Here is the input.
Amino acid sequence: TEIGALSGLMHLMPLAAPAKGEDWSDRARRDMKSLYQLTRTLEQELTAAGEQGGAFCLSTTALGGGLAFDDQTPEDFNPGQGGILGFTKCVAMEWPEVLVRAIDFDRERPVAEIVDHLISEMGEPEGPNEVGYLNGSRVTWEPYSAPLDSAESTDLELDQDSTVLITGGARGITATV
Here is the structure.
């Protein structure tokens, strides 16, 4: 109330070192729940600020800087941080007026370097929703179509007695199915 409307959220909790004796699933729950509660609470303010010309929601992970797609993922990485990446992509789809991005870091990098990258991402509205900083380079991944090897494919036979569970937000593939 004293400062005015909020126009940004930067969720840094996943960059903290794991608490001594904390189970990875407890840590994942804490990291994910805090991000969820913050985005839910701040949704109206951030989307309104985005409609006025500028808002951001940056989440972080400590998967080593390569979004866990490389061989440099740290031994103590938290697999639950993959949920942060997925959740952030969903928020990006729901808040098109807000710069929403998940940024993966190597927690061992100097704090000043991480801060510089975070500030840089705040000023980069175009680009992917997931980026990492691996060995000094900004990286991302890009899915591409690849044919299935017919020898590896299997035919899935469904009949009227088959049960299929389909989950999702009913906007893309779920709605099509």
Remarks:
- The radius of gyration is 19 Å.
